[in-house]
Design a protein that fits this description.
- By secondary structure, this protein is of the alpha/beta class.
- The chain is 31% helix and 26% strand.
- The strands form 6 sheets. A 9-stranded mixed sheet has the order 2-1-10-9-11-12-13-14-15. It has a 4-stranded parallel sheet with strand order 4-3-5-6, sandwiched between helices. Strands 16-17-19-20 form a 4-stranded antiparallel sheet.
- Helix 14 links the parallel strand 24 and strand 25.
- The model has no long low-confidence stretch (mean pLDDT 95).
- The protein binds adenosine monophosphate.
Length: 492
């Protein structure tokens, strides 16, 4: 079934309900969603676009950008969201690789984006700005507000998401209608999302967390979004008393905790705080519980597979764990206790765009997808993510999982957070190196303190050979620590 119809069957039962309240005060009901997506879908189809044609979109977050995503699903087109941070080199590659029929950019990139579209022979280029205005909206406005949703099968392509790809070429993960509908259903059930919920949406919408997890669950439940253009801790705290849910990356939670106004009081109507996209520090998990009375529910997922694991809604939510595989997901660990996480299920994507060999490499002979994450499952079935396979350090022939050392270092008084990386070493191949942010309370911790502490707890091959102190760790927009940057910086 087409993902749009799957959602609309539910939300059109109450068309006058509010879908989205923007920070500008603008309101969109579900009837508006139906009409505006019809308008955009008609416009795109009348341009001559055919089923599966790509619509590449690099714009600021706005309600209209959400409607555009839905219009593409509805028209049977392939939505292709692009991170706002991407510059010319990256956009040139994506346009050439995806060959979109339409590309939509932010007006602030008009100096270069249309020229790249010309080079890539993209037939139609438009703009859309952060206030929801632009040549796309102007051109679409005369179109009809009636549209018959395209028929889509579960295997039909719905969205291409380019993975961040820190090494080699970025790959376009092909996400199908079946992936989107099944994952939305599973999450609504797992997290008890109902039409009475109100979610604070402060995530970017070019990434699965803000685009699929947050939007699709709300649409499927006919619930409401309080839509923030950007994450701002005090704006979120002001919105909490009117909300029931927040979905965030770990940095949202650490930033909320730096605000003195973040207490139990504004959280009274809240029912669920979800964290994902990067590991949540145990300190943050514990402090959040103390300050708000709420236990963050951590989940694990990726562009290629939607959501994979979640801590339970009712049972014990464990800090440092991403919970158990969601219903419909089969998960196994390759090679014993700690190893590569492999998964199977309706959530798993259909492959990398125009990379059949790369796709084949990432699946096992018996059809499991190799996530590239290293994990372990405990006796109760809870999964812990140890790190990315590419971040694994091999020192003197021993495998070293950075997460084990990071957890130990993070627990040392005077440490705010840490990242452990491998740097080239003439003897060991790679040397374990710790990069540490001291806590803000005037910590005078030294490298010798850290090394002597780790020595008492872990085997010598895991003890950092060097410790570097930095003001902050480099993170991408989803809050992931960019270890490739640290490796470059500290390799010498
Ligand atoms: P992306 O495709 O950009 O969403 O990135 C997916 C990757 O983020 C996963 O493969 C994991 O490495 C990481 N990730 C997502 N959620 C978590 C989590 N809760 N804890 C640790 N890593 C996570």
């Amino acid at each position: 079934m087409n993902t749009y119809d799957y959602f609309a069957e539910r939300f059109l039962q109450s068309p006058a309900r509010i879908f989205l309240e923007a920070d500008s005060g603008e309101i969109f009901t579900y009837a508006d969603v139906e009409q505006e997506t019809a308008r955009y879908a008609n416009f795109l189809i009348n341009l001559g676009l055919k089923t599966g044609d790509r619509v590449a979109v690099q714009v600021e977050k706005s309600p209209q950008a959400v409607l555009l995503y839905l219009a593409c699903l509805r028209a049977g087109l392939c939505y292709l969201p692009l991170n706002n941070a991407y510059q010319q080199g990256e956009i040139r590659y994506f346009l050439g690789d995806a060959e979109p029929a339409v590309a939509i950019c932010s007006p602030q990139n008009l100096a270069w984006f249309p020229a790249l579209c010309d080079d890539a022979k993209v037939p139609h280029t438009f703009t859309l700005d952060q206030n929801g205005a632009g040549s796309f909206i102007d051109a679409a406005s005369p179109s009809s507000t009636q549209f018959v949703t395209a028929t889509s099968k579960p295997d039909d392509l719905a969205v291409i998401i380019y993975t961040s790809g820190t090494t080699g070429r970025s790959k376009g993960a092909m996400v199908t209608h079946g992936n989107l509908t099944s994952n939305a259903r599973v999450l609504c059930d797992a997290w008890r999302i109902r039409f009475s919920d109100t979610l604070i949406h402060a995530l970017p919408i070019f990434h699965i967390h803000g685009l699929f997890v947050a939007l699709n669950t709300i649409l499927l439940s006919g619930a409401k979004l309080i839509f923030h253009r950007k994450f701002d801790a005090s704006a979120v705290i002001n919105a909490l008393p009117r909300a029931t849910m927040l979905m965030g990356v770990p940095t949202f939670y650490t930033r909320l905790l730096t605000e003195t106004s973040f207490t139990r009081e504004p959280c009274k109507s809240m029912r669920l705080f979800v964290s994902g996209s990067a590991p949540l520090l145990l300190d943050t998990f514990n402090e959040f519980h103390e300050r708000s009375g709420h236990t963050i529910l951590e989940r694990y997922g990726m562009s290629e597979a939607g959501m994979i694991c979640s801590n339970p809604y009712d049972g014990e939510r464990r800090g440092g764990s991403v919970g158990k595989p969601l219903p419909g997901v089969t998960l196994r660990i390759d090679g014993g206790e700690t190893g590569g996480i492999e998964i199977k299920g309706a959530n798993v994507f259909s492959g990398y765009w125009r990379m059949p060999e790369k796709t084949a490499e990432e699946f096992t002979a018996d059809g499991y997808f190799r996530t590239g994450d290293i994990g372990a499952i405990d006796r109760d079935g809870y999964v812990a993510i140890v790190g990315r396979a590419k971040d694994l350090i091999i020192s003197g022939g021993f495998n070293v999982y950075p997460r084990e050392i990071e957890l130990l270092i993070d627990a040392i008084p005077g440490v705010a957070e840490s990242a452990v990386i491998g740097v080239p070493h003439p003897d060991f191949g790679e040397a374990v190196t710790a990069v540490i942010v001291r806590s803000s309370n005037g910590s005078t911790l030294t490298d010798a303190d850290v090394i002597s502490h780790v020595k008492t707890e872990l085997a010598s091959f895991k003890v950092p050979k060097r410790v570097h102190f930095v003001e902050e760790l480099p993170r991408n927009t989803m809050g992931k620590v960019q270890k490739n940057i640290l490796r470059q910086q500290f390799s010498s």
